[in-house]
Design a protein that fits this description.
mainly alpha, two-stranded antiparallel sheet, 18 helices, two-stranded antiparallel ribbon, disordered N terminus, 7% strand
Length: 452
């Protein structure tokens, strides 16, 4: 994929890594005297580039879901034209260039590190860095696939459909074509299996991946692929290593940022690129969705702020900031929800109830919680899916959930919006669910637009 626009941003990112501290969180500085990375220290500096490998993930999936809404006035005033048109599901519009280029910059860094490591001595240090590079590559490419590729069907019937380039070389002049959807996900799994074997169990701060994070991402991907047995296996493995849930009764309900960065539930720290569209005075929770939280559900106060005009905005960012760059990393609550859903789908009803109750009990006002007693498997699954939506709000999960849940008529959703008196609708499995490649990328590469 010869892409001079991406090349510019990639090289600029590397220059910045060599000129400044890679991450105030890790307090690791690159060697500013080196022009060409070629040491373990250089590799670690690249992998600790927090502003890239932890903060470059897409936001537009959240923009297109049904959890939040815009008034006609605010919609018309959006500065980013692509945001405005994607919000009403215009299937001719492509996302902003950053939504593609940011994750591929992370892929480039991962490939650069793997290339350097091939020339360095073997050992535990090299293995840890190789594992981190495999993890970052898979994390970025899966984030892209959720937007720009169709969801893989469980029966494999669309495995031959062309997906995205799976770049495995740092040579930006090398032409890389799309790979088939089945091959793309097989490569994701292979990268993460390698990462899980190579990474240590602990890695210090959650801004660095460990073997638990690799298993958590495998669980997320297998859930997306509708492989519930494997998703359950990896979720269970994760929760054997990290299972602590925050008791929301202990959090300051009325603070603007009630959650702390790197809180005890975070397995891997990742943040979506910011968009002014998500500014709290503009981006309001959909009234019907807000009403789905009971008054004793602490998430109602911890996730949303009252604007004083009968509207509510999001404040429950697991990154600990009231800003337009929401958390999109891996956390314990997501893995608990994956485990509960898979158990329900596999007809382990009692264990599924026990799992979802363990989460819900930590989310309700102490002394008011009533355990779930649903015995009907379908009713229990519906409840778990509702809990998933309420728990993972603004975590970049709703878009991919819609894609997979739309495959079943029982859980499919038709979304609708009204702007300036005009009604817009997005039906299940519409072509819009596979987004087009940004036009700027096509203009500077040999890629052709996605056929959908």
């Amino acid at each position: 994929m010869k892409n001079y626009s991406i090349q510019y941003y990639l090289l600029l990112g590397l220059v910045m890594l060599c000129l400044q501290s890679c991450s105030k969180f890790l307090e690791t500085k690159p060697d500013t005297k080196l022009a060409i990375p070629n040491t373990f220290e250089d590799c670690q500096a690249l992998l600790d580039g927090y502003g890239t490998v932890n903060m470059s993930y897409p936001y537009v999936g959240e923009l297109c879901t049904d959890d939040f809404s815009l008034t006609s006035e605010y919609w018309a005033g959006l500065e980013v034209y692509e945001d405005r048109m994607l919000y009403v599901w215009d299937d001719k519009i492509t996302p902003p260039q950053s939504q593609w280029a940011g994750p591929y910059q992370t892929v480039y860094i991962a490939n650069q590190v793997l290339s350097i490591l091939e020339t360095l001595p073997e050992g535990a240090r090299r293995q840890q860095m190789e594992g981190a590079a495999y993890f970052y590559r898979a994390y970025a490419l899966f984030a892209l696939a959720e937007l720009f590729a169709p969801i893989p069907l469980k029966d494999g019937s669309n495995a031959g459909v062309m997906a995205l380039p799976y770049r495995r070389s740092p040579n930006i002049e090398e032409k890389v074509e799309r790979v088939a959807l089945g091959d793309f996900f097989a490569l994701l799994i292979a990268d993460l299996e390698n990462a899980r074997k190579l990474l240590p169990r602990t890695a210090g701060l959650p801004s660095r991946p460990n073997s638990t994070a690799a298993a958590a991402l495998l669980s997320r991907i297998y859930l997306y692929m509708q492989d519930y047995d494997k998703a359950l296996d990896f979720a269970t493995a994760v929760l054997e290593q990290q299972s602590s849930l925050i008791d929301y009764n202990t959090l300051p309900q009325y603070e603007e940022s009630p959650f702390k960065q790197f809180n005890s539930e975070v397995i891997f720290q990742a943040i979506a690129t910011g968009s002014f569209t998500f500014y709290y005075t503009i981006w309001k929770v959909a009234p019907q969705f807000y009403a789905s939280y009971s008054d004793n559900d602490l998430r109602k106060q911890l996730f949303f702020m009252d604007n004083g005009d009968d509207t509510f905005s999001f404040k429950g960012n697991y990154d600990g900031e009231l800003n337009q760059a929401p958390f999109c990393g891996l956390a314990v609550d997501e893995l608990v929800l994956i485990k509960a859903e898979c158990l329900a789908r596999l007809n382990h009803t009692e264990e599924a109830k026990k799992t979802i109750n363990a989460l819900r009990e930590k989310r309700y006002v102490k002394g008011t919680y009533q355990p779930v007693e649903v015995s009907d498997p379908e009713g229990l699954l519906r409840l778990i899916l509702e809990e998933r939506r309420k728990e993972l709000v603004m975590r970049q999960r709703r878009w991919s959930d819609l894609k997979r849940l739309n495959l079943d008529p029982e859980t499919a959703t038709t979304m609708s919006r009204t702007i300036d008196g005009k009604n817009y609708e997005l039906k299940p499995n519409a072509v819009f669910y596979t987004m087009l490649i940004p036009q700027q990328i096509l203009n500077n590469s040999t890629l052709t637009q996605t056929v959908r």
